[in-house]
Amino acid sequence: xxxxxNAALVVIDVQKGFxxxxxxxxxxxxxxxRNIVAxxxxxxxxxxxxxCVRHTADRIVSPFASWSPGRQxxxxxADVRFDVTxxxxxxxxxxxxxxxxxxxxxxxxxQLVVTGIQTNMCVESTVRMGSDxxxxxxxxxxxxxxxxxxxxxxxxxxxxxxxMTAA
Length: 167
Hints:
By secondary structure, the protein is an alpha/beta fold.
């Protein structure tokens, strides 16, 4: 795959709150964080732009509440130097502050490589919205992970959710 010289790496919600026991279902892709870090290292080495996206919950009781340690990035990303950090309270990184679309347009960036957590939620929402806004979107599915989802007696596995997003 050919990437633009200034393709931005967008790292979504790689936060400690996703490690909180008892909240999330069984996760897939235990290599996701390692793959995300590898992409960050490549982006830093090639001096491409990097965007950090962080979820902050409006609810007081949440692993992503503004006061919660769960809002912090995972330790694997502690040394990564991001060009901008977007704070959001919804799924899409395009609905946050500062305005991601405006930042990208000002920087002349038209291609985004999107990674992070959860594959079928915030990552997918950002990829869909970015595409709708006219950006060239790339999704390295092995640099994402998600969790099993339950509804009543039905469970959809994290791998099935990943496969649906990839499809």
